[in-house]
Specification:
Elements: E1 12-13, E2 17-26, E3 29-36, E4 41-48, E5 54-55, E6 65-66, H1 70-92, E7 102-108, E8 111-117, E9 121-123, H2 124-130, H3 137-156, E10 159-160, E11 169-172, E12 177-179, E13 186-187, H4 218-234, H5 241-246, H6 250-255, H7 261-270, H8 282-294, E14 301-309, E15 318-322, E16 325-327, E17 333-340, E18 346-354, H9 361-378, H10 386-408, E19 413-421, E20 424-430, E21 435-439, E22 442-445, H11 452-459, E23 487-492, E24 498-502, H12 504-507, H13 512-519, H14 523-535, E25 543-549
Antiparallel strand pairs: 1-2, 2-3, 3-4, 4-8, 5-6, 7-8, 9-11, 10-13, 11-12, 14-17, 14-25, 15-16, 15-18, 18-19, 19-20, 20-23, 21-22, 21-24, 24-25
Helix pairs in contact: 3-4, 3-8, 7-8, 9-10, 13-14
């Protein structure tokens, strides 16, 4: 695309978003990386621009110029209506996990814009290409469950995506898989304004009924998803329906893959040419395709040891929560015990670290811990997927901190917590309170750090020591931020897994090699070793740590 068409670096949109660079473009839009000056964070902005019927010369004006041809004008209106429909659908789906959340939308420069969370990574088509055209089931299926979760909730809200393909599945650098591009999505309600009667063709991934709008439904997405799996694990596309009626090569292709018999049968059912014999819900497909992952491990008893140490601070700005028990003593303490788990229950441990540079950071960390405590008591047993609940929890924490900030001025806290349900764990970070997993004597940090230093690193700006221990920006009166900074991890538990959820007071003083040696000890001994190592530093910060062993 001609560079004269693209908005130049430094362009400010909506008096808020500053364009950094172009990250993608297609026939109906240009996607930019931009800096949100209100929330101090990078975002993605999609601009409605079709190079077939629109022009622009940014050296003259940022406004787009529409074709004056009547036939082309009609096509522009149809494309524009589709773009607006995508905005409306994304707003309905904004709380669905593993779909990039829409943050804003506006009209400017004679066209429309959508502001979304910025995802960094690559599509599965790009990922497969780098791996020689084939992905192993063991590396594909765990993140693919994220998309199954997203589809399950999307379908429950009455929408079908209708364009699932490797190019519309985005794998982030953090290992999360997102479903993207809702330009062809449609409601299943025939009377809704969001009904999309557009006929699209994506050869090799479209279901047999793709030309018949009234026959499309949940089963249409299931077919496209299963066709995508076949393509990614075999390197070969699924035959068009007419060819499959003559000779179906898919069973032989799957036999050569590393899929189990159960998984092969699940994909074949999802690709059945007869709609009635296909899966009628994503939940059924998810159960059969991912059951072997889900059967990994369930622990009835989980041991823990939690403690906090004020160090050289006059006030302890740390806080912690262990499975619905709220601790705030303002003094050193250690407590250990056992958490009894039932399959239908949610459980959680958490650490909140008040930001030292803000006013009364201990009050912010306490407010966050109270929100976590209330959440786990309220949703101890819930049929709602944990992924959806976590998004709600982030908003609850944000609301508490912002309310507090309006009362006392600028204040903030980092938040990290480990939530587990049956045999799955969910690790969430806001800020620089890390989460570690020790598995089979290997220690891995699973909580990514979201700090001002990280933001500057992404922007290519110099980093100072003061950047390393603060949030992207404070939560509170002067600037508002919260769940949009959360980093989310999901995985399956194994017997012997040991998690450490802690404040940066631990990692500032103890390197990962020593942490690994400590965590190999029983929980109480591990915490004592951490405490001893931190205490050796005369200027040690206050710290908090929770060790959980399955």
């Amino acid at each position: 695309m001609d560079s004269k068409v693209q908005l130049p670096k430094g362009t400010k949109l909506h008096n808020r978003y500053v364009i950094e660079n172009v990250v993608g473009n297609g026939g109906f839009g240009i996607t930019y990386c931009a800096f949100d000056t209100l929330l101090n964070r990078l975002v993605a902005i999609k601009e409605f621009y079709t190079d077939k019927y629109m022009t622009r010369d940014v050296s003259v004006s940022l406004d787009v110029i529409l074709s004056e041809d009547e036939g082309e004008m009609e096509k522009i209106h149809k494309c524009h209506d589709n773009f607006l429909r995508e905005i409306k659908i994304m707003k309905v789906l904004q709380n669905v996990p593993y779909i990039s959340r829409i943050r804003d939308s506006f009209y400017e420069n004679g066209t429309e814009y959508i502001v979304m969370n910025l995802l960094r990574g690559q599509t599965l088509s790009e990922c497969a290409k780098k791996k020689g055209g084939i992905m192993r089931p063991a590396e594909l299926l765990p993140p693919l469950e994220h998309v199954l979760i997203a589809l399950e909730e999307m379908h429950a809200l009455g929408f079908v995506h209708r364009d699932i393909s490797p190019g519309n599945l985005f794998l982030t650098k953090d290992g999360d898989l997102y479903l993207i591009d809702f330009g062809t999505a449609s409601t299943m309600d025939e009377t809704s304004e969001l009904r999309n009667n557009q006929i699209f063709e994506h050869k090799g991934f479209q279901a047999p009924e793709f030309k018949e709008i009234d026959k499309q439904g949940v089963w249409t997405d299931i077919y496209s998803l299963c066709a995508t799996i076949v393509y990614l694990i075999t390197g070969e596309g699924v035959q068009i329906p007419e060819e499959r009626l003559k000779y179906d090569a898919i069973p032989a292709m799957l036999t050569k893959s590393a899929l189990s018999n159960r998984q092969q049968n699940a994909i074949l059912q999802g690709l059945n040419l007869d709609i009635a014999r296909r899966y009628q819900s994503v939940k059924e497909l998810r159960n059969d395709l991912c059951r072997e992952l889900a059967e990994a491990y369930f622990s009835k008893e989980v041991s823990y040891c939690a403690g906090t140490n004020i160090g050289t601070r006059a006030v302890n700005q740390d806080n912690l929560m262990v499975d619905g028990l709220f601790y705030y003593e303002g003094k050193d303490f250690v407590q250990s015990g056992t958490i009894v788990c039932k399959p239908e229950e949610l459980h959680m441990v958490a650490v909140c670290d008040g930001i030292g540079g803000a006013n009364a950071g201990e009050l912010a960390s306490r407010a966050a811990a109270q929100a976590l405590n209330h959440f786990i008591k309220q949703y101890r047993t819930s049929e709602v997927l944990p992924e959806r609940l976590i998004l709600e929890l982030m908003d609850q924490i944000n609301e508490k901190i912002v309310t507090l900030g309006r009362k006392i001025g600028k204040t903030g806290t980092t938040v990290s917590f480990l939530l587990w349900y049956q045999n799955q764990y969910y690790a969430v970070n806001i800020g620089d309170s890390p989460i570690f997993l020790l598995r089979k004597r290997k220690l891995k940090q699973i909580g990514a750090i979201q700090t001002l230093a990280r933001k500057k690193e992404l922007e290519g700006k110099p980093i100072t020591i003061n950047d390393c221990h603060t949030l992207v920006n404070y939560l509170g009166k002067d600037r508002i931020a919260g769940s949009q900074m959360a980093v989310f991890r999901h995985g399956y538990l194994q017997k012997g897994d040991t998690f450490l959820v802690c404040s940066d007071g631990v990692t500032d003083q103890v390197d990962q090699d020593r942490l690994k040696r400590y965590l190999l000890k029983p929980e109480e001994h591990a915490l004592k070793a951490i405490n001893k190592a931190v205490a050796k530093n005369a200027n040690n910060d206050n710290y908090t740590a929770v060790i959980v062993r399955f």
